[in-house]
Amino acid sequence: MIQRQELEAYIHQYLNVPLFKDYAPNGLQVQGSETIKTIRTAVTASKEVIAAAARDKAEALLVHHGYFWKGESPQITGMKHGRIKLLLRHDINLLGYHLPLDCHTEIGNNACLAKALELHEVRSHDAAGTPNLLWSGKLKASLSPNVFEETLTSVFGQNPMAILASEAEKPIEHVAFCTGGAQDFIAEAANLGADAYISGEVSERTYYQAKELNLHYFACGHHATERAGIQALGLHLAKVFDLNHAFIDTDNPV
Known about the structure:
The chain is 36% helix and 27% strand. The protein is an alpha/beta fold and 254 residues long. It has two domains: 2-97, Udp-n-acetylmuramoylalanyl-d-glutamate--2,6- Diaminopimelate Ligase, Chain: A, domain 1, CATH 3.40.1390.30; 103-222, Udp-n-acetylmuramoylalanyl-d-glutamate--2,6- Diaminopimelate Ligase, Chain: A, domain 1. The strands form three sheets. It has a six-stranded mixed sheet with strand order 7-8-10-11-12-9. A five-stranded mixed sheet has the order 2-6-5-4-13, with helices on both faces. The protein has a two-stranded antiparallel ribbon with strand order 1-3. The radius of gyration is 19 Å and the shape is elongated.
């Protein structure tokens, strides 16, 4: 069991939250129970996820995608009202961690992907003014685009959208990656000398960029590429503070 303020303070330091200028508040977003012994983690604080946390009698829900994004209406109405009402009814603390969880060098989304792909010579790079947001590394052995696509399917549990380079059979050894909606770092990936770039989403313009930069691009799903970091954070907290932890997944193919 841990006090809410103690848990938030620990995560704040562990993820080095002050280092980041983010699009939403990192930390406690909706206040609940003062004491916490059961935590649940999820990618996004959807109503489905909150209901599952409530069934598990969790005192805290930790997510990568929380609320109160820049440009979002401040009104608590409609869908947002339904979600927050459910959190308050069950006295659940909602804590959200966005860029700090992407960029953490041990349990972040990108760090977890590097481990899943068994990369070596792994490096993190600044992107869009954010430290450790774009990553790169090398595979143990060069792979064809088809075999690499099969590897990604195994890692993420779903088929990626693959846009092949202008040299369609170009082998892949050097990989760059940034989880989530980071397709627009594709030029930065090319500047790193990568053969392939992995992210979560894809835009219409990405097709032409991949062809003209001669870089394979794999869109593996925003949700799928950002499952690992929040789970790793939950496992870490459960171990340090002897908390009950489980990850709540949703069938989100996007």
